[in-house]
Specification:
Distance between the termini: 34 Å
Strand content: under 5%
Structural class: mainly alpha
Length: 134
């Protein structure tokens, strides 16, 4: 059951981040009016969930964190560029998408690092309160 919850958590996080990043990419790259089909929306959601599941790489204990980052970067790029190809350039031409991809990847890592830092701070505050009460 714990594995199922972990899979859902990774996929869910990927969906949330991926949906936001897909929409932002289309806002800044596409023309002023775009039409997105159900197939395209489904493909973007599948792409986002796959990227979320790909974060399992960071749970592999034998793989160092700084070794997992480039692997995650490359595999995520394959998923993103593959989806873009499948969707006939919905996210932009590959040369522009490369720049956008790098910017988004760095931005997401920055936001995740901030999120983790706030989470650690919150946990430490709870521990301090608990220790003061004992």
């Amino acid at each position: 059951m714990d594995n199922f919850k972990t899979i859902i958590r990774h996929a869910g996080t990927g969906l949330l981040i991926g949906a936001l990043m897909s929409m932002l990419t289309m806002i800044f790259v596409s023309q002023s009016v775009i039409t997105v089909s159900r197939f395209q929306l489904t493909a973007m959601l599948v792409m986002s969930a796959l990227i979320g599941l790909l974060s399992f790489i960071f749970d592999i204990e034998k793989l160092p964190f700084y070794g997992a980052i480039p692997l995650h970067f490359v595999l995520t790029a394959i998923i993103v560029f593959g989806t873009n190809h499948l969707l006939h350039g919905l996210f932009g031409v590959p040369s522009h998408l490369g720049i956008i991809y790098i910017a988004i990847y760095i931005g997401v890592w920055f936001l995740l690092k901030l999120w983790w830092s706030l989470d650690v701070h919150r946990i430490n505050t709870q521990i301090k309160k608990r220790n003061q009460n004992h």
